[in-house]
């Protein structure tokens, strides 16, 4: 997904701005894997194969997201940033 498009997205729950943290991108500067986080409601939305998973909570299968988050935890391994933190195998948005 192109970064210009990501900048136009907002949180589907509270319409707040989202912060992008890129895990991988291609040669054309498109995000292939990453995290969109909302500091207002503390939700995170993974970007998988260039597609942001922004479904409402009741339609998300968090069990399917766990392998991805475990893989990313190895990459992030306890690193903390302004947008997210890793804790107990889960990535959470922070303010």
TrEMBL record:
Organism superkingdom: Bacteria
Name of the protein described by the UniProt record: Trm112 family protein
């Amino acid at each position: 997904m192109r970064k210009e498009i990501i900048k136009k997205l907002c949180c589907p729950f509270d319409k707040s701005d989202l912060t992008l943290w890129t895990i991988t991108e291609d040669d054309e500067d498109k995000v292939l894997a990453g995290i969109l986080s909302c500091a207002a409601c503390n939700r995170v939305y993974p970007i998988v194969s260039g597609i942001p998973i922004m479904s409402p909570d009741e339609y998300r299968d968090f069990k399917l997201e766990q392998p991805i988050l475990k893989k990313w935890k190895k990459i992030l391994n306890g690193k903390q940033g302004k947008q997210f933190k890793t804790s107990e195998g889960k990535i959470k948005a922070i303010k």
